[in-house]
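Today's session is about reading a structure prediction critically. Students often jump straight to the picture, but the first step is always the sequence itself: look for stretches that repeat, for charged clusters, for runs of hydrophobic residues. Only then move on to the predicted structure, which in these notes is written as discrete structure tokens rather than atom positions. Here is the chain we will use throughout the hour.
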Amino acid sequence: MHMRYSPDRLDLTLLALIALAFATMALAGVARNPVLAAGIVLALAAVKGRRILLDYLNLRSAPALWRGLATAWLMLIVGFAWAVSAVSALLS
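Below is the predicted structure for this chain, in token form.
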């Protein structure tokens, strides 16, 4: 009997997180504009955070209100981090 492996959602999320981590590292080596680079890195972090929220914290099956609140909190943190990096770049 031959068993065929079929990746589940957690496996696919792990692969996506690894790919996004490599994309973040690759961006660090070629970035010219620090504000733009910070924005892209933080956008990648937001995507990673959303995948973790939905799949590893199992919010995909939670009510929409909880998913929305968790996503809003994540976006607030990412937006604040980007604003701090933008102000820091503008002041230097």
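Discussion point for the tutorial: Helices lie at 9-30, 34-56, 64-91.
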